[in-house]
Each structure stands twice: as structure tokens, then as C-alpha cells.
């Protein structure tokens, strides 16, 4: 007997083949092999939304190889990824290879380990047509929206624009936040802050005015109010009114799901969502580990389930007991509840072999793989550990007619925090330990002052907080978060500003038009309902064709109405004026977006067709010729730094100039790429270095 196993990724082939004998042959489809045609709608709307699939360009040779291998085999097993897309790829393979989709020829590998592969082979099943139909419905929906709406945007704004069922709603979220920020009216407020100390312990601690002595909270909105309170507090004794002590148990975060992995990798490692998923895919498919050969290191990375296997739990528990001891185990096993509506086909993202610590595999991994594996491994192990225990203290302090409050805590047992703590989007202002205090203690005032503050607008989204918003609002699914963000950035609807994401002028203009003409497409709630409909197709609750018909009925009507308004003038996208003067006609050049990114162009076009590369100025001085250092972009949009006098001067570096002058030679210093905090002088022969910026 010979068995052909077809997986999606070529990377998996070597890993899986290692676990199987010569009677198995493993090949890869390298993703999808059929899709809707690029140049046509490819969907027969009038006859049940029947899709017209064609072989993907460039895959005819691979298809011939797969057909030949299938003909030589006694059995064909379809082992594409265990999700909607993977199920659809298996179905397309079955169509091409003449395999019966109702036969038990579909296998799923939730982890690429020997156990995971053997477990999958023991449980073959028919192709799940509900999953396939959910994928088909999603693909057809996206094709209809994109194919029908894009020409509308071309006519109204400019050629080359695109719209999408998920991407347009995603852009709106960012645009709406920007409008909130602009509309925000900052209000002044003051805090009254005291620095106090007890006679028994001269260690000072902070306390804030809360309100009046009866416990009614008070806001202070002006300097006059603050000064009046400070005057009233002159020479007034500060006396401890009450001390409330307690114990707080902090539970660890659950193992990662796709969205939380992307969020935490962005907060902690600075990874974009696509970078996170790329490294996770590599860890899942298999890495050549020293002494072990090709090995899958994590479970499947597209999941929204918090479930873990008992086998993995036992392995994690064994590690905790061996390294940290029994006291770091909880009294009873901790089970996390998966949110309602989540897909529970796969486990949470965890190390495939918990005993394989990050340090053991570090030499076999790329920097990105190692950082992400460490994050996944630590989060999983910590999720099994005992809670952290904190002794808390809250103190009320009477000062004349006013009440101050102070709070703090000490850690009595570190628990899971000995290994891992979750990064936060906002800082926790709670203080550390308070000195020993008792009711009636008279405190000395080391400092007492009013501090002015202003209310702040909501912050712009980062990738982490935008993914969190997608999840909370039901926009897309975990597998679509990373490509959605990449798409709306690459199409110049939003842009990065440091770690923040902000809409471009194009994104705002396009969203305004979409809100006016196609309110449902950019309506977050409507988009979420569509996602629920796709989930219902997947679970077999509704028919996929009926769902498409319901959507298209209203969509077609809205499209006709919008096309009737096309007689007006085209909408102009505001252009950003730069400080660069066109040397040909003297006008200030404007920033434009093109196929290869942003560039400078003369606003006098077509009379003046002058264009220039857009360079980002830095605070650096070239160590070779003394020219200005500018930021540039190379292959894959990777930023590097070079002399503005190129090609006369060929100085280039990956390291970022920090605007700091070398104390030895007086030239610009640079931050070492990949080594946070290490700053050095790039001038030949100098060699000056600092460990901190």
C-alpha cells in the first residue's frame, strides 16, 4: 500500500515525512490551487451564485505532479490546514484529483509533532462541506463587494482604489477615532498631591485629595480652587483616619488565542500582526531543531479556543513542579472558559512539547522565532501556575475638612509572575508598599502642592488595540486580522505614526463617501452580523446561497442608487504640502502616493512634471562627508539610513541615528540594530560605545 498525503506548506513536508515510513509520500499544494478569475467577477449571480473556479496561474506544473502522484498511490489523504481555508483547499484538491469528498480522506494535524501527526492519521473523516461553503460564501461576498464597489471609487475619487467588506469597516474604525480626537475639547482639572511620612518610619509616601471629610468625592477644576484648598490645608494636621488591609489574588492570563498573541507580540515585542503570524506559521510547520531534526514547536496558530489537552497540561505541570516546586501549583487545575460563539476545533496556542524550553531551542531559531516561541511558552506555563498573592493597604487620611487617600501593596507570593506578566496598554498608577501605619497616626507633610492637568482625547489605535477592537466588535476573524491591517496600510488608507495608526487623507475621503453611499458596508454592526452569518453557514444552521441572496438584494439596490449620483464632480483628495521647493518652477512640492509608496510631486502638473524621492530627515551627520543622514526604504519596505549626498558619498547603515554627539570625536552616534539600548559611534577609528541611550 502507498499513501499520498497532501499538505499546504512545503515547510511541513520534511517534518511530517520524518515521522512516517516509506509507504507514505508527502507533497504540498503550496496554498490554494484554484480561485475565482482575477479579471472577471467569476460568480453567476443569476443562477445561485455559482462560482467559476480556475487553476491559479503558475500552478499547472504542480497540478500535473499531484495528479501523477495520486494516480500512483493506493490512497490519497488531504491534510491541509485545519480551518475554513484549509477545508476549501482540500475540497478543490478532491475535485482536481477525482477524490470522493464524502469518503474518509481528510485528516487534520493540530500540531506537527509525531503525536499530532499520528493522531490525525488515526481519525480520517469526510471533507466538511459546511466549512467549505462558509469559505465559498466569504470569498464570493468579498469578490462581489470588491468587484462592484471598486469601479465606483475609481469614477468618484481616482483609479486604483479598492473597497472590501472587512477592510472598509476596518478603515472606518480608525477614521472614527481620528474624528473623535479632533472633536475632543480638553478640560482643565487639578489634583492636590501630598507627600507624607509617619513618625515611626520616615519613608515618604504619596496621597491624593479625594473629597470632603464625609467621603464625598470632589473635583478641582481651576487654579483658584486648588489654591483655596491649599490655603485651607496650611498648618492643618494630617491624621490617619482608617487603615484597610486585604489580600488580593491575581490569576494568570489564559494561553494565547490568535488575537491575544498578535496583541501581546505587538505590545511586548513591537511585532506587526503579519510578522507575528509569519513567525508563528514557521514554528507550527516545523523547525530543524538541533538533535531532533524537523520539529513542529507550537500548535495551530489560528484559533479562538482556550481549551488545552490534558496531555499538554500534565507535561506543563511536570515542568512547574520540577523547576519551581509544588507550591507554585494551584490548589486545583485551572480551566479557562472560551467565549460564546468561538470556534473550538483547535486548542489554544501552546508549545507542542512543553518540556522543550526556549533556551533549549534558541540556537535553532531565528530571532523572531525565538522571541515568539518564548512568549508562547511562558504564557502557557504561567497559565497553569498558582496565583500571585498581594497584601493590599488602603489608607484614609483626614486633613481638616478634607479627605486624602493612599493605596499600595506588597507581594507576599509571586506565583506565576515569577515567569510571566502580561503587558498593558495603559500604566497602572497604584503605588508600591506603604510604610506601617495605624489609625490615629499623625503624619508630617513633606510636600503639598496642586498639579494642573488636562483631560486627554482617546488615543489613536495601535495594532494591538485595533485588533482588540476587531475582536470586540466582531469584525473579521482571527485569521483575517493581520492581512486586513496589512491591506489597509498598503493601499494608503491608514498609515503608521510611530506605533500609532492614523487615517490618511485618502482614507478619510473614501470613508466619508462610503458612509454616504454604502452605509452598510462600513457599518461595524452590519459587518459583524455578516460574520455571524458565515459562522452559521459553518455550523450548518443556514444555507450559504440564501445568505448571499439576502445580502445581494439590498446591496444591488444601494449600488444602483449610488451610480445615479455619479454625474457630479470627482472628489478631490487633499494633498499635504511639503517644505521642499520645486527647483524648476519654485512652487512647494506636495506629497503624493503611488504604486511604490509616497513621493514628492510638483503641484503645477502637467505644466511642470518634476517629481522627487520623499526622504525622511534625521538628526544625523554623515561620518564620511559631513552631509545629512536621511531615512530610506529598501526591499520589503525595510528602513535603512544613508547620506543625502549619495552617490557622491556611499555611507549607509541599518542602525538608527539618535541625534547624540560622540564625546570623543564629535560625530553622530547610532543605536545598534537589534540590541536595545546600545549606542555607538560609527566614525572609523573612534570605537566609542555606551550601554544606554
Overall residue-averaged pLDDT value = 89
Integer tally of domains: 6
Q: Could you please say which CATH topology of the largest domain applies here?
A: Topoisomerase I, domain 2
Residue share in helices?
25-40%
CATH homologous superfamily of the largest domain, by name?
Topoisomerase I, domain 2
| Helix run count | 17
From the alpha-carbon coordinates, what is the Rg to the nearest angstrom?
30 Å
CATH class of the largest domain: Mainly Alpha
Distance between the termini: 65 Å
Major sheet description: 6 strands, antiparallel, barrel
Gross CATH architecture of the largest domain: Orthogonal Bundle
Shape: globular
Low-confidence runs: none
Structure summary, number of beta strands: 30
Cross-sheet strand order for the largest sheet:
8-9-14-13-10-15
Structural class: alpha+beta
Strand content: 15-25%
